[in-house]
Amino acid sequence: MGPVTPGGRLATGIAWTVLLLGLWLWGREATDVREGISVPTTGDMAAAGRPPDVPLPPAHEPLGDALPQRLDIPELDIRAPVLASGLDTKGAIEPPPFDRSGSVGWYADGVTPGAAGTALMVGHVDTETRPAVFYEVSALEPGETIRVVREDAEVAEFTVDDVQVLTRDGFDAQQAYGPRDTGRAELRLITCGGTFDPATGGYTANVVVSAYLTGTGG
Questions:
Q1: E strand map for 74-218
Q2: Of 79, 73, 64, 39, whose CA–CA distance to 116 is shortest?
Q3: What percent of the chain stands above pLDDT 90?
Q4: Helices within the chain (DSSP H only)
Q5: In the chain, what are the helix, strand and coil shares in percent, each to the nearest 5?
Q6: Strand partners, 168
Q7: Lesser CB count within 10 Å: N end or C end of the chain?
Q8: Which are the contacts of 111, defined by CB distance < 8 A and separation ≥ 6?
Q9: What are the C-alpha distances in Å from 39 to residues 59, 62, 112?
Q10: Range of the domain at 16
């Protein structure tokens, strides 16, 4: 989000609350996964939310704004194009269409990856017939790398510092999407987790991967 002026603080706060609620609803209700699909539950549960086993590098100074073009996660062999996304009528970030389930949606009215603040990216865990782009992100662990290729030819390199599996009953929007350290350039990857609940037509949890900028490449 951009700077908040004193007169606009309340309105911005309301908009942010709507966005966070929408993200939860997207993970809870709008995931088009059907029975019969083998769905990862929560990935590495031992890793979720635990302190890292290896020392994490210092944060890199935030970059300027530049649009993201591709998301790379070497450990998972992911190279995914990035699509700019807005909010749907429920206030949720619109994920990529299912015919582009290998793509990642970036909330284009928010922070660009690498700039100061928290950039938000969403992706499907799978479709009616096959795994999708974020099928394995719950298995990421602290210390692993996420790269975002930007249109300025810079590669923003992020280090994972936390992976959380948040149940719908215990969901905390600030914990999930709020900044971990003011002034850093941070990244959140958001998808569905837990198990598919046929009664509600959605998952029982959300997977939230938190990472922060630690380097750049070209």
A1: 78-85, 104-107, 117-122, 145-150, 155-167, 185-197, 202-217
A2: 64
A3: 45
A4: 9-29, 173-177
A5: 15, 35, 50
A6: none
A7: C
A8: 1, 117, 118, 119, 120, 185
A9: 34, 36, 30
A10: 6-217
Query: Cα separation of 152 and 184, whole Å?
Result: 20
Are 96 and 190 in contact, with CB atoms under 8 Å apart? no
Tokens standing for 152?
């300025």
117 domain residue, yes or no? yes
In terms of pLDDT, which residue wins out, 23 or 66?
A: 66
**Closest to 135 measured CA to CA, from 89, 168, 102:** 102
Contact 176, 20 (CB under 8 A): yes
For residue 1, is it within any domain?
A: no
**CATH code of the domain covering residue 86:** 2.40.260.10
- Provide the 3-class DSSP secondary structure of residue 185: strand
Tokens 């935030």, located at residue: 62
Both tokens of 207, joined, read 């997977």
In the chain, how many domains are there? Answer: 1
Q: With contact defined as beta carbons under 8 Å apart, do 34 and 197 qualify?
A: no
Q: pLDDT by residue (tens digit) across 93-133?
A: 788 888 898 999 999 999 999 999 999 999 988 877 888 99
Q: Name the nearest CA neighbour of 147 among 45, 218, 55, 195.
A: 218
Q: What is the pLDDT of residues 74-84, one digit of tens each?
A: 999 999 999 99
3-class SS of residue 187: strand
